Amino acid sequence: MPRASERQHYSSLQWVTSLLHNKTLDEVIEEADKTISITTYNNYIKYLSTLFEYAIRGECIERNPFSGMKLKKRRKLNSFRSVFTQTELERLFKAVQGENIPFKRWLLCLGFY
User: Fold this and answer.
1) Are residues 93 and 65 part of one domain?
2) Tens of pLDDT along 47-58?
């Protein structure tokens, strides 16, 4: 019966192999940049870095290709928002001015929040 550390090592290798799909590490990183969330990307980098550190301690490799790799930072939601010009704001508020249904004005105001 394999020891727990050997089972963990084997499952780590299976995970890395399934992640690579016969691609280079650079190809996997480039693809991940486009297809997965920032949190998942950062978790992969941390996990792979830990795995390669384990391989260094076991004298399987000499250096960790993930060493020094920067994790991505989340952008705040408001950094994605575009700003309306003064003219656009005037046009939006004129469109609902005189409306007999107050929720339209409130929706417009809430949209800016």
Assistant:
1) no
2) 888 888 888 898
User: Can you tell me the distance from the alpha carbon of 36 to that of 43, in angstroms, rounded to the nearest whole number?
Assistant: 11
- Exposure string over 45-83, b if 16+ CB within 10 A, otherwise e: beebbebbebbeeeeeeeebebeeeeeeeeeeeeeeeee
Neighbours of 1 (CB within 10 A): 5
19 and 65 assigned to the same domain: yes
And the tokens for 11?
């499952």
CB contact at 8 A, 69 and 45:
yes
Instruction: Identify the sign of the CA torsion 20, 26, 29, 34.
Output: negative
Number of folded domains that form the chain: 2
Cα Rg, the chain, nearest whole Å? 25
Whether the per-residue pLDDT at 4 is higher than 50: the answer is yes
- Is residue 56 domain-shared with residue 107, that is, in the same domain? no
Print the domain residue range for 89: 78-112
